[in-house]
Each structure stands twice: as structure tokens, then as C-alpha cells.
């Protein structure tokens, strides 16, 4: 039975009271709907109660796009527009030292970032062509591939938003719930349905979750964002450990291929790895279990403090056993089957970069832009290359990379040459392959430092200085203490902040975290006490670190060990 089939009436716009009400007790102050606490306890909850975020679309189409930026209601501008993937971008020229001291409106530019959701990272050449055109016509050529398989535009004017939506939706794309307190883009294995070693193809479940839950007002007022991942790849290629709910392909000894359920992962300021519920779910039941987990979050999630509102806090209080019990008893109305966990992948790279054989005998070709940065003209050319060499299918990855599918053996070399002519490497250096960066101060209002350009320059410098370094390695760069580029689970995590240089000046720099990892050996990097580097010192610091590692490592030792 689908968890959403039992939805009761909403107590507020888009706020269904799905679960039985319990006696208010210890959590009285957390604003949990399931305990009967519907009175908003902070400004964000009030905005969501006043009007469901999804409703802002009508105002954008009928009013704001005609009357202009200055007429946008502030509650829409800094709140509800996120439900349609729109954030104001940072006003150019404001340095990182002002980020924390200025009011939000002082940081707001009159242009927007728009995030296009690409569930499962699946794109057609036609969709990519349209994204490339939108980028060039409306976004000054910008287009970044994010580490959640989305594509983001910048410099979007409110006047152009309805036309952009029209073009996206004409080819089956959208920005619906790409941001906001909603079920965000569903990560999926970029090689679902084609990989030779695949345990199970989760694509149907991703489509069904999208069909049932995305854009449904019943699930559009969550305590905070809700991140989902589905992958049947043994490479564990969707960072399942740091999603609110994840379905990871496993083989049950009696029932065969299905998914192991993980809940409560998330990074940011108080990072937690997801935990297993110990439950095995067949493909056709994944959407129901998703519905149960997101409903628990909606009904029991903490709404008093934004920084305690992610599912990970509820899970920390309940534990996996109680979570599973509530899921089974109150939402699914049946028990789940116990099952095994995934195995540690042999391969350390999870990004599918390179030339790989598909199970149908054709090939897929994964390639690496620098730190996810491409542009509209390049995307259009990638679309043309994919059309010429493949069957019209592409994928984005959770490592800011892309893949072209379905390439015949005798077309691979021509495709690789075409990509490399666009500076998109199929056999990149460790540094190009393993470095990710968030949006940073160029556009992000929360940023303290530059990230994308800094990451690209770091790659170039390390390639020049350490041409023979070929150890798998991840260098993740954030522009602030948030975790958009997953610094806590990188070999070298760089958290942007202002630091003091040798002359006593406050300059851009990074707090260094070392030794984070994902997979079955997942853990957070150690914050190296007092270790902060200025941006200018960064290449020297990383070079020293890696040279020392090369000189001192024992046989088979990895950087993270
Ligand atoms: Fe912005 Fe910080 Fe996220 Fe980077 S990590 S995109 S600077 S909020």
C-alpha cells in the first residue's frame, strides 16, 4: 500500500497531519506535527504555513515576471521561490568578510540562480541542447553541473523565468522542488540499466517516486530539505551515506536483488552518516518505503530550530530500531524483510569517468570538466557529440562529471577526441578527476571565499607540479562552513573562511580537514587543529602533503589511511 494513500486532511496549506497524534511529552518544544504542534515556532515555518511554496509559481507567471524584481514579496523572494529552484544570487563585489554582517537584502542581487532537477542524472541529447540554449539566451552562458546531478544557471532575470520553464517542461525537465524544504532531486546511479556489474536497476523506482511525490503539496512542507538516493551499482555511486533516505542495491540470499534501506545521513554543520534499517526492499516497494520515510520526516521532524530540523536529528534521538518500527507500524502497516548490507567496492573511484563496456556490448564514456564548470555553448556541443556517437542518452554524476551512453566500439575514439577538443578529458589526472567545488563567492550569498576558480587553478598547478601522481584522491572545496561540496568526506576537505596571513592581514583561506571517506569505511575527515591555509598558499600546501605521502607510504596504503 502506498504510504500516501492514507493522507489525512491538511491542518495548514500543504501540511497534512498524516500520523496519529501522540501525547505531547519531551518533544513538546520541537514543533512536531505528529504531536499536534502546528503553531509555527520560527519565521520559516510561518512563511510555509502562510502559503505553500509551490503556489509561488502562479505569482511568478502572472505578476512578478511582468512587474519586475522590485515588486516581489520578500517572503516569496527569500523563501517560497526556492520551491521552484530559484535563489537570489550574491550581489557582485561584496567580499567574504561582509557575508555575516550584512542583512540578506544587502547581499541580494536582482538576478537568480535556477537549479534544474535531473532525477537519476538522466538526460537526452534534446534536453541537453535545450539546457545549452537556455544557458546562452538567458543565463549569460553559465551552467554548472552540481554534485547532486543537477545543472544550475546563474544571471536569470525574473522576467525570463516563465519562458525558461516553458522550454524546460517542453522536453520533460523542470525546476520543481529543486530547492526548498522539499523532496529534492533524487540521485540515481549514472550507469543504471547499462552497467555490466549492476546488481539492480533502480530507474523505475526513481520515476515512480517522482510521479507520486514531487510537486505534491502533501510533501512540500517538510521541516527542511529531504535528500534521496537510489542505486543498484556495486560501486556505491550516489553518496548514499549522506542522504536522508537511500536505497542501495544488494542481493538477498533468498529473495534476490533488491535494496538495502539507509536513513538519516547529512553533512553541513553537524554531519552524520546514514544508518541501515536492516531492511531489504524489492524494487516495486521502494516508492512506498520512500513515502513512509518522507512522511515520518514531515510528521515527526523537528520544526523549532532550522539547524536541528534535518531527519538526522530525529534519527539520533530515536535510533534505527524505533525508526523502522514506526515506519512499519504507522506508515506501511506491515513488516519489512530483514536483509544484508552492501559490500565494499573494489574500485575507489565512483564517478564512472573513462571508457567502459556496457552489458549490451556498447560503451559508455565518462568525462571530467573542471570542478563541474561548463557553459551553454559546450553543453550544446556535448549534446551534438552524443547524438553523433551514441543513441541520444547522457548522464550526470554525483561527482560533477558527465557520461555519454551507448557508443559503438568503433565510435569510441572519435568521441574521445571530440570531447578532448572541448577540454573535457576522458583520461583526466587524479586532480582533475578528484577535485570538486561548490558555487562559492561568485554567486552564493553565504560564501566567504572563492571556490570554482580556485579549484580550477589548483588542478592546473598540481598537474604541473605532480604529473606522475595517480593515486585516487578527492579534494573538495567549500566556500563556507556548509557542506555543499562534501568537504567532510573528502581525502582533503577545504572549508572556506577568512584566515590571517603572515603579515597579519585577514585574507581568503581554508580550514583543512584530512582523511574523510565514503563507502563502508566512511568517516569524517579530521579537522587538523590550527591548520589553516591562505588561498595563495594552497598549491604549496597540497603539494607538500602529497609529496610527503608518496615518500612515506607503505605498500598499498591509500591517502586516507
Ligand atoms: Fe554556498 Fe557555502 Fe554551499 Fe558553497 S558550501 S554553495 S559557499 S552555502
Describe the structure.
This protein has helices at 43-50, 56-67, 74-77, 104-107, 125-138, 161-170, 203-213, 286-300, 311-332, 376-389, 412-421, 430-434, 452-465, 538-552, and strands at 86-90, 108-116, 122-124, 142-145, 151-156, 183-188, 226-231, 245-252, 256-263, 275-281, 337-338, 354-357, 363-367, 373-375, 393-396, 402-407, 435-437, 475-478, 492-500, 506-514, 526-534. It is of the alpha+beta class. The strands form 4 sheets. A 6-stranded mixed sheet has the order 6-7-8-9-10-11. Strands 1-2-5-4-14 form a 5-stranded antiparallel sheet. The longest helix is centred in the middle third of the chain and has 22 residues, at 311-332. The chain is globular, with a radius of gyration of 23 Å. The two termini are 45 Å apart. Residues 1-25 have low confidence and may be disordered. It binds iron/sulfur cluster. Iron/sulfur cluster is lined by residues 438-440, 444, 446-447, 478-480, 482, 484.
Order of strands across the main sheet: 6-7-8-9-10-11
Query: Which ions and ligands are bound to the chains?
Result: iron/sulfur cluster
Unreliable stretches covering 5 or more consecutive residues: 1-25
Content of β-strand:
15-25%
What does the average pLDDT come to?
A: 93
Give me the number of helical elements. Answer: 14
What is the overall shape?
globular
Class by alpha and beta content: alpha+beta
Query: What distance separates the N and C termini?
Result: 45 Å
Q: What distinguishing features does this structure have?
A:
single chain; 561 residues; alpha+beta; six-stranded mixed sheet; binds iron/sulfur cluster
Amino acid at each position: 500500500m502506498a504510504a500516501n494513500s492514507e493522507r489525512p486532511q491538511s491542518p495548514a496549506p500543504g501540511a497534512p497531519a498524516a500520523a496519529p497524534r501522540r501525547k505531547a511529552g519531551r518533544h513538546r518544544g520541537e514543533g512536531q506535527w505528529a504531536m499536534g504542534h502546528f503553531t509555527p515556532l520560527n519565521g520559516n515555518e510561518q512563511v510555509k504555513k502562510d502559503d505553500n511554496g509551490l503556489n509561488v509559481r502562479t505569482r511568478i507567471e502572472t505578476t512578478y515576471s511582468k512587474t519586475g524584481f522590485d515588486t516581489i514579496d520578500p517572503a516569496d523572494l527569500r523563501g517560497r521561490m526556492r520551491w521552484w529552484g530559484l535563489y537570489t544570487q550574491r550581489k557582485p563585489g561584496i567580499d567574504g568578510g561582509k557575508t555575516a554582517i550584512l542583512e540578506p537584502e544587502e547581499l541580494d542581487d536582482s538576478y537568480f540562480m535556477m537549479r534544474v532537477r535531473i532525477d537519476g542524472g538522466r538526460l537526452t541529447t534534446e534536453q541537453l541542447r535545450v539546457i545549452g540554449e537556455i544557458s546562452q539566451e538567458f543565463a549569460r552562458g553559465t551552467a554548472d553541473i552540481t554534485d547532486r546531478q543537477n545543472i544550475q544557471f546563474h544571471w536569470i532575470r525574473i522576467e525570463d523565468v516563465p519562458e525558461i520553464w516553458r522550454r524546460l517542461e517542453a522536453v520533460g525537465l523542470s525546476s520543481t522542488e529543486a530547492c526548498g524544504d522539499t523532496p529534492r532531486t533524487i540521485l540515481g546511479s549514472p550507469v543504471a540499466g547499462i552497467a555490466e556489474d549492476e546488481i539492480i536497476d533502480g530507474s523505475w523506482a526513481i520515476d515512480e517516486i517522482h510521479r507520486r511525490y514531487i510537486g505534491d503539496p502533501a510533501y512540500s512542507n517538510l521541516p527542511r530539505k529531504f535528500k534521496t538516493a537510489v542505486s543498484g551499482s556495486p560501486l556505491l555511486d550516489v553518496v548514499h551515506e549522506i542522504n536522508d533516505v537511500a536505497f542501495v542495491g544488494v542481493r538477498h540470499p533468498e529473495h534476490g536483488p533488491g535494496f538495502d534501506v539507509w536513513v538519516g545521513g547529512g553533512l553541513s554543520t553537524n554531519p552524520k552518516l546514514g544508518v541501515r534499517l536492516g531492511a531489504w526492499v524489492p524494487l516495486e516497494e521502494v516508492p512506498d518505503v520512500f513515502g513512509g520515510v518522507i512522511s515520518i520526516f514531515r510528521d515527526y521532524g523537528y520544526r523549532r530550530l532550522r539547524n536541528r530540523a534535518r531527519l538526522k536529528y530525529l534519527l539520533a534521538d530515536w535510533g534505527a530500531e524505533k525508526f523502522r518500527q514506526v515506519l512499519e507500524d504507522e506508515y506501511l502497516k506491515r513488516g519489512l524483510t530483514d536483509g544484508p548490507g552492501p559490500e565494499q567496492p573494489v574500485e575507489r573511484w565512483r564517478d564512472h569517468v573513462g571508457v567502459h563496456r556496457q552489458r549490451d556490448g556498447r560503451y559508455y564514456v565518462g568525462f571530467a570538466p573542471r570542478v563541474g564548470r561548463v557553459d551553454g555553448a559546450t553543453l550544446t556541443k556535448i549534446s551534438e557529440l552524443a547524438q553523433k556517437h551514441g543513441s541520444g542518452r547522457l548522464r550526470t554524476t554525483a561527482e560533477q562529471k558527465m557520461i555519454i551512453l551507448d557508443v559503438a566500439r568503433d565510435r569510441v575514439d572519435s568521441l574521445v577526441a571530440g570531447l578532448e577538443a572541448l577540454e573535457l578529458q576522458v583520461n583526466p589526472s587524479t586532480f582533475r578527476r578528484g577535485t570538486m567545488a561548490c558555487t562559492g563567492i561568485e554567486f552564493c550569498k553565504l560564501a566567504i571565499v572563492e571556490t570554482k576558480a580556485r579549484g580550477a587553478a589548483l588542478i592546473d598547478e598540481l598537474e604541473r607540479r605532480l604529473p606522475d601522481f595517480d593515486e585516487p584522491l578527492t579534494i573538495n572545496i567549500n566556500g563556507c562552513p556548509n557542506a555543499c561540496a562534501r568537504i567532510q568526506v573528502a581525502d582533503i576537505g577545504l572549508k572556506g573562511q577568512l584566515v590571517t596571513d603572515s603579515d597579519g592581514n585577514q585574507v581568503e583561506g581554508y580550514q583543512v580537514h584530512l582523511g574523510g571517506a565514503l563507502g563502508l569505511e566512511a568517516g569524517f575527515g579530521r579537522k587538523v587543529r590550527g591548520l589553516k591555509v591562505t588561498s595563495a598558499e594552497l598549491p604549496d600546501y597540497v603539494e607538500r602533503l602529497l609529496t610527503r605521502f608518496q615518500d612515506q607510504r607503505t605498500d598499498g596504503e591509500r591517502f586516507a589511511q
